[in-house]
Amino acid sequence: MESAQAFKHLRTLIKAASETDDTTLIHTQLTMMTVIIDKAAPRQKPYVTLWLTGPDSREQPSRDGAAGER
Q1: CA-wise closest residue to 17 among 1, 2, 32
Q2: CB atoms within 10 A of CB 28
Q3: For 23, what's the count of Cα atoms within 13 Å in the CB-facing half-sphere?
Q4: What angle do CA 37, 40, 46 make, to 5 degrees?
Q5: Are 59 and 70 in contact (CB under 8 A)?
Q6: Residue 67, Cα to own-chain centre: how many angstroms?
Q7: What's residue 18's pLDDT?
Q8: What is the pTM of this model?
Q9: What local confidence, expressed as pLDDT, does residue 17 receive?
Q10: What are the CB-based long-range contacts (under 8 Å, 24+) for 31-39?
Q11: What is the per-residue pLDDT across 14-63, written as a single tens digit (0 to 9) for each?
Q12: Alpha-carbon distances, residue 8 vs 3, 26, 29 (angstroms)
């Protein structure tokens, strides 16, 4: 969905939601807004989570408290 078209739909839904007290209608309009935003959002490339690990076993302190050698 084009951004301009999405904004037009969102403006219409926001206006309609602000003019009613019907909670069911407001909920439906909020759901529709979420769908419009999801369709208009650019697709992002998936990313890989980088897990931090503890210190390398070769870098463990030696018995005298100095850092180990590599």
Answers
A1: 32
A2: 14
A3: 0
A4: 95
A5: yes
A6: 41
A7: 87
A8: 0.50
A9: 84
A10: 36/1, 36/6, 36/9, 36/10, 37/6, 37/10, 39/1, 39/6
A11: 888 889 899 998 889 888 888 888 888 777 766 666 666 655 555 555 56
A12: 9, 18, 14
Written in H, E and C, the secondary structure of the chain is CCHHHHHHHHHHHHHHHHCCCCHHHHHHHHHHHHHHHHHHCCCCCCCCCCCCCCCCHHHCECCCCCECCC
In the structure encoding, which two tokens stand for residue 4, read together? 């301009």
Nearest to 35 by CA among 6, 12, 11, 8: 6
Helix axis angle for 3-18 and 23-40, nearest 10°, is 170
